[in-house]
Design brief:
CATH superfamily of the largest domain: Response regulator
GO molecular function: DNA-binding transcription factor activity; transcription cis-regulatory region binding
Radius of gyration: 25 Å
Largest sheet: 6 strands, parallel
Number of strands: 12
Pfam family, one: LacI
Order of helices and strands: HHHHEHEHEHEEHEHEHEHEHEHEE
CATH architecture of the largest domain: 3-Layer(aba) Sandwich
Structural class: alpha/beta
Shape: elongated
CATH topology of the largest domain: Rossmann fold
CATH class of the largest domain: Alpha Beta
Protein name: LacI family DNA-binding transcriptional regulator
Keywords: DNA-binding, Repressor, Transcription, Transcription regulation
Strand order of the largest sheet: 2-1-3-4-5-11
Length: about 325
Amino acid sequence: MAKITDVAERAGVSVTTVSRVLNNRGYISQAMREKVYQAMKELNYQPNELARSLFRGKSNIIGLIVPRVSHPFFSELTYSLEDYAYQKGYKLLLCNSNGDVSKERKYIEMLKKNQVDGIIMSSHVLDVEDYLNLNLPIISFDRILAENIPIVSSDNFGGGQLATKLLIQKECRKLAYFYGGIGVPHHNALLASARYQGFLEELKNTEIEHFAIVLESGNTDSNVHEIVQILQEHSDIDGVFASSDTIAAKVIQACYQLKKKIPEEIKIVGYDDVGIASLISPPLTTISQPIKKMCELTIELMAKQINGEEVQLVNRLPVSLVERCTT
């Protein structure tokens, strides 16, 4: 395998000149550049990206840590973040923590060793000090890490209000809020918990019966079975607000097993508006997060931080109601 010294010898220049051509540093005549490029082509030389990043002090790589990339929301999030990062000249290094403290800590160490320019955190299982000691630009997605770490989120509280207001307008008299995902440390830091606060706020001056149901961490089949049992025990539930479209889809499956008619007997509202929301049957009414705009903003904020610019700490985007066939 050819080395940079081989390229310098073939081109008849110094190693420093080859390095300056590779990293586009300093003045190099066009004739000299072409001579170096020709030598690289003849030797089939492949530059060492890590060495180049050390020379530049910048790798153009951003680390992304998500709790579970198989989840429809985080799958779409990852796709959009990668797309906008690429447009800005960055590559993403994806880490799937699965809510595991040890795994997340090892991923963070790996990202540091790989000289990433910054980290986007969409998982949060470590203590705050672990993030503050990184000395890297960090953007947090929809969760609180520390007061001085910028956050990008949607209006979770307003989304909870929108969903609940619709169920009230549809004359539901007994509402259930289904949520999950609390089986990890620091779950109280998740801004998504504000969806439930919005639910409660909209109901506080009504006489509508309501309660919240926490789904145990588990696979889809176990969750659906759990929902079936709850709907059997409370057969008069006629309105459901689910904290995600994935949970709403499980509620729909449970209703199908119980032969409950949607929306005649029970109305369901989800949250996120990921792809499955319009594909399941019946198509799901949901609160739409502007995922693409949130991802674009996240990458813009990261790029500014990498360049040493100050950024706004709290960045909250509005949500909207998308009504389909479940209400």
